[in-house]
Design brief:
heterodimer, A: alpha/beta, Rossmann fold, five-stranded parallel beta sheet, two-stranded antiparallel sheet, 9 strands, B: 370 residues, alpha/beta, 3 domains, 18 helices, 10% strand, globular
C-alpha cells in the first residue's frame, strides 16, 4: 500500500516537526503522542487513540488536518451506524424523479437503470469521500468507534486494509490517495483485536500538571497566571477523588473560561462553588467534591 | 539491530503481549524510522505497534527497560538466553502474585496436561464456588473467563436481532420497480436494527454471600466487558454503583479499589432498602422495557419483606425481565422459605441457581429469549 500523499512542499522528517507544528496550532503534544502521529504519517498506518472523554482525542484529528494542510473528513460513530450513513446512499427522490421524466423516452430498462445508478445520484458519505480525494490525502477522523457495532467495525477493518469500497450497482472504487486515519475510542467496550492490531495504539492519559498548565495558557491566552495555576491544580486534585466522571481537559478549559468571564482573578471557595457545574456533571460527583472540601482543594 | 528488535518482539510475545509476525515487521520499520539511539523515543514507537490496550501499554514500560538494560549490559548475549531469563523471573513473579494465584507460569511447559485439564474443566464447571479449593480457583477462573466471554459474545449478537421489525428498504424497492416507472408496487423490506438490551446487575456482597460474591463479581465484570449497556451495583445494607469501576480498568485494580470503598462487604443485608435506593436514584435512567434486571443474592434479608416486595413490584413494572440467581438453590434440599425470598418470588420471572459456573452459563438462554 502506497503511503498517504502529502501536500506539495510539506516535509516531515522528524518527530520534532510534529511537535512544533502542533504547538503552533495551539495543541500541546507530548513526545509519545507526537511520535505515534509521526509514525502514522510515515508508515501510513491508522492511529487509534484511546482514553477518557475530554482529553482532546477528537482535536488531534482536527489539528492534524490543519497541520498537514489538508481536508478533514469526520465520521461520528453511534449505535446503529450503518453503511448507508457512513459510506454512501442513493438519492432516492432524485432517482424517482428521473424515472418519471424518462418514462416517455425510448431507452431500454437497462439503460435507465444504468443512468439512475450513476454518480449523479450517489450521495457520498464520509468513508467514500475519504478515498476519493483528488490531489492530497485527507485526514479521516473516525470518532468514537467504540459506539458503532461489531458489524460496522468489521467493515471498517476491511476498508482500512485495502481502501476500496464496492458499490454493487456501480463497481469497485479504489482510493487514489490513501487517507491519514485517526480513530478515537472512549473504551465503552473492547474493540476487536483485528482492528486494534491494524492500528498504531496510543493511550491518552490525563495530562501532568505542567502539561495541563501549558494547554490552558495556549488555549486561553488571556488567563491570569495565578488563576490558571489554581484551576489546574484544583482539577488535578479532583481527579484523585474517584469521581464517576473525572474531569477532562475540556472541563478544565470550560471552567477556566467561565471564571474568566465572571472576571475572577483568583479561585476562591465562593467562586468555585458557584461554577462547580463546569467541572462536575452529576449530583454524586458534586457531593464527593464538597465532601473532600472545596477549600482544601484550592491551593 | 534487526536481530535485537526481533529478539525484543519475541521477548514481549513470551511475556504475553499479543503480537505476531506482522507486528515484528512493523516494529522493524519503526526502528528504521526513528533509530534506536534515543531509547525513550524507541520505547514510544515500539509501544505503539506492539501494544493494543491500556493494560499492555502499562506492562510494556517494564518489559522494555528490562530487555534493553539487558541488551545494553551484555551486547553479545542473545536475548531470550540465560541472560534475560534472570531478569524475567522476578517480574513474572510480581505479575502473577498480583493476579492472585494464577498457576500459568508453572504448568506452561507440561503439554500432556491438556487432556487431564479438559475433564478437570468439566468437573470444575459443576463445582460449587464455595467448595472450590484455593488451588483450583485459578484454573476455574481461567475457564470461566473464556466461557463467559464466548457466552456474552453470543448473547450480545443475538440480542440485537431478537426483535427484528420491518422497515421499507427504499434502495431495493426502487431498483425492483424501475420497470414499473418507479412506482413502488413491489416493496422490499429490511430488518430494523434494534437497540441492544440493557443489563442491570445487582450483586449481594453481604456476609452470607461471602463464598460467592467474589466470583459473581467476576461474572459481572465479564458481562460488562462484552456488552455495551451493563450497569453493575453492589449492595448489602446500602447500594454502590460500580459500573465505572468495572469498566475501564483491569479487574485486579478494580477489586483493589472496591475493597477500599466501604460498600459494607460482609455485613448484614437489607435488600429492600438497597432496592429502594436503586429505585430512587437510578430506576428512571436505567429501567426500560428493554432492560433485563438481574439480582444475585441468597435472599437473606434483615429488612421488612413487605418493603422488599413493594420495591420489586416497582422494578418488575418497568423491565422486560426480572431474574434472581440464588446460589443456595444449588443445594439439594433448599426451599426458598426465608421471609424475604418468599415475598420476592411472585415478582420474579426467573428464579435459578447461581452457585457454579454451569448455572451462570445457563443464563445465556434466558438473556436471549423474550
Amino acid at each position: 500500500m502506497a503511503p498517504p500523499t502529502l501536500a506539495k512542499g510539506k516535509q516531515i522528517n522528524e518527530v520534532q516537526d510534529v511537535v512544533r507544528g502542533f504547538e503552533s496550532l495551539g495543541y500541546i503534544t507530548d513526545p509519545a503522542l507526537a511520535t505515534v502521529l509521526f509514525l502514522g504519517i510515515k508508515l501510513g498506518k491508522p492511529v487509534l487513540l484511546e482514553g477518557h472523554a475530554g482529553l482532546g482525542k477528537t482535536e488531534v484529528g482536527k489539528v492534524l488536518a490543519a497541520f498537514l494542510g489538508t481536508r478533514l473528513i469526520r465520521l461520528q460513530c453511534y449505535e446503529g451506524l450503518d453503511i448507508n450513513s457512513a459510506v454512501y446512499e442513493w438519492n432516492y427522490q432524485k432517482q424517482l424523479l428521473a424515472i418519471k421524466i424518462e418514462e416517455a423516452t425510448t431507452q431500454s430498462v437497462e439503460e435507465k437503470e444504468k443512468h439512475i445508478f450513476s454518480r449523479e445520484f450517489l450521495m457520498e458519505r464520509p468513508l467514500l469521500q475519504a478515498i476519493q480525494a483528488e490531489e492530497i490525502s485527507p485526514v479521516l477522523l473516525v470518532d468514537e468507534v467504540d459506539r458503532a457495532d461489531e458489524a460496522f467495525e468489521a467493515f471498517l477493518l476491511e476498508l482500512l486494509s485495502d481502501f476500496q469500497i464496492s458499490i454493487p450497482e456501480m463497481g469497485t472504487i479504489g482510493a487514489r490517495h490513501v487517507p491519514f486515519v485517526i480513530l478515537t475510542s472512549n473504551r465503552s467496550r473492547e474493540l476487536s483485536d483485528a482492528l486494534k492490531r491494524r492500528c498504531l495504539y496510543h493511550w491518552i492519559d490525563y495530562p501532568s500538571l505542567d502539561k495541563e498548565l501549558k494547554i490552558v495558557t495556549a488555549r486561553l491566552p488571556g488567563i491570569e497566571e495565578e488563576l490558571g495555576r489554581q484551576v489546574v491544580s484544583f482539577v488535578q486534585a479532583a481527579r484523585k477523588l474517584h469521581l464517576s466522571k473525572s474531569p477532562g481537559v475540556a472541563e478544565t478549559l470550560d471552567w477556566a473560561q467561565a471564571l474568566m468571564s465572571l472576571s475572577k482573578h483568583r479561585l476562591d471557595p465562593v467562586a468555585a462553588e458557584e461554577t462547580l457545574g463546569c467541572l462536575s456533571k452529576s449530583v454524586e460527583d458534586t457531593g464527593k467534591i464538597r465532601a473532600a472540601g472545596i477549600e482544601s482543594l484550592i491551593s | 539491530m534487526a536481530q535485537t528488535i526481533t529478539g525484543f518482539c519475541r521477548f514481549v510475545r513470551a511475556e504475553g503481549l499479543s503480537t505476531g509476525i506482522k507486528e515484528s515487521v512493523d516494529a522493524l520499520q519503526v526502528a528504521n524510522l526513528i533509530g534506536i539511539e534515543d531509547r525513550d523515543q524507541l520505547k514510544i514507537g515500539l509501544r505503539s505497534v506492539l501494544c493494543s490496550s491500556k493494560e499492555e501499554w502499562d506492562r510494556f514500560e517494564d518489559l522494555f527497560w528490562i530487555f534493553w538494560r539487558d541488551a545494553d549490559t551484555n551486547a553479545e548475549k542473545r536475548p531470550g538466553t540465560n541472560g534475560s531469563k534472570h531478569q524475567k523471573e522476578p517480574l513474572k513473579g510480581a505479575v502473577t502474585s498480583l493476579l492472585g494465584n494464577s498457576s500459568k507460569g508453572k504448568t506452561a511447559d507440561e503439554g500432556g496436561k491438556a487432556v487431564v485439564g479438559a475433564s478437570r474443566g468439566e468437573h470444575l464447571k459443576k463445582a460449587d464456588f464455595s467448595q472450590v479449593t484455593q488451588n483450583d480457583l485459578a484454573e476455574l477462573e481461567k475457564i470461566a473467563i473464556q466461557l463467559i466471554k464466548r457466552m456474552s459474545l453470543r448473547v450480545s449478537r443475538r440480542l440485537k436481532i431478537m426483535k427484528a421489525g420491518r422497515q421499507i428498504d427504499l434502495r431495493r424497492t426502487i431498483r425492483k420497480n424501475i420497470s414499473r416507472g418507479g412506482d413502488p408496487i413491489e416493496l422490499s423490506f429490511k430488518n430494523r436494527k434494534l437497540q441492544q438490551s440493557r443489563l442491570v446487575i445487582l450483586l449481594d456482597v453481604s456476609g452470607s454471600m461471602n463464598p460467592y460474591s467474589l466470583f459473581l463479581l467476576r461474572f459481572a465484570y465479564a458481562l460488562q466487558k462484552h456488552f455495551r449497556k451493563v450497569n453493575t451495583f453492589l449492595f448489602s445494607t446500602r447500594l454502590t454503583d460500580i459500573t465505572v469501576l468495572l469498566r475501564s480498568r483491569d479487574l485486579r485494580q478494580s477489586l483493589q479499589e472496591l475493597a477500599q470503598e466501604s460498600a459494607g462487604w460482609s455485613s448484614g443485608t437489607q435488600i429492600g432498602e438497597s432496592l429502594h435506593e436503586f429505585n430512587f436514584h437510578h430506576a428512571r435512567r436505567l429501567l426500560t422495557r428493554d432492560t433485563i434486571f438481574i439480582i444475585l443474592s441468597d435472599g437473606w434479608d434483615t429488612g421488612e419483606p413487605e418493603a422488599l416486595a413493594a420495591e420489586l413490584a416497582a422494578i418488575k413494572a418497568r423491565v422486560r425481565k426480572l431474574i434472581w440467581l440464588n446460589p443456595l438453590l444449588g443445594m439439594k434440599d433448599y426451599q426458598p422459605v426465608t421471609r424475604g425470598m418468599s415475598a420476592a418470588l411472585p415478582y420474579i420471572d426467573l428464579f435459578a441457581p447461581g452457585h457454579n459456573l454451569e448455572s451462570l452459563l445457563a443464563l445465556e438462554r434466558h438473556l436471549t429469549s423474550t
